[in-house]
Structure formats: C-alpha cells, structure tokens
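Milestone M4 deliverable, item 7.
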Amino acid sequence: MTASFLILAGAADWQHPDWRGSFYPSDLPHDWLLSYYNTRFQTVYLSAARWQAASATEWAQWLDDTQPGFRFLLEPGTAVPPRDERVIEATPEWSATHIWWIDLSPDLRELAQHASARASAREPFFVISRSGNLDRLEQVATLSQVLGY
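Output delivered:
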C-alpha cells in the first residue's frame, strides 16, 4: 500500500454531533460531511455495524467523496468488505502494528517512536480517536508535520 502520508489521522466515524458548529460548519448538508471530513483527515475507522449496513451505492458514494489517498479502516465483521485498495479490514493482528488509539495512549513521545518505526519500513501508521477528540487529532497533525511525515 502506498499513501502520500505516513501518519494517517482520523476518527471512529465522521458523524459526531458535537462537531457541528466546531469542526463542521453548522449549515453543511449532512451528505457533505464525509467530503468535508476528508479535507482534514486521511482515514476513518468504521465499526462493523456501520460499514456492513451501508449499501453498495453508499460505498460507491463514500469512495467517490474521498481523495485517492484516503483509507477506510473497517472493524472485522461477518460480511465481506468492499473490494478496493482504499478499504482495509483492520484485523486485531494488523491493528496491533498499524493503529495507534490516541484516546487510550495519548503520550506523543511514545507515538512519535512508533510512527518513526513504521516510517522506517515506509508503511503508513494510522492514528485514530475513538471519541472524535479534535484537540488530540490536532496534536497528531502537528506531530506529523514536525516529524516530516
């Protein structure tokens, strides 16, 4: 997999009601949320219930609404994920080495060490906020810039 970013930051889902008026403009149409989210973040983590409930038409729209470097991380489920290089089934084994849950481990020094190890392998490293903590995600963006990733 190639990506233009080595640290890909995002949240669990892009629909956070408390983001209205703070992250999302209050008048932004609901069906534009993902496109807007994609202007700031490079990935999204979707629960099995969320991604499995989406129709083929919705998936096509989601893929169309996001840039080529954007990645969808999927919690493993019982359905077969859409076939697209931008869709990754985040199995526990894969997640253990590729995902940093910023809400659980907010230590930025430790995050920098893990990101540097992944960067030396030229593999992207996903930093996800389960809670949608915008302040933490902003810190990740700053760290990524400082590290040159």
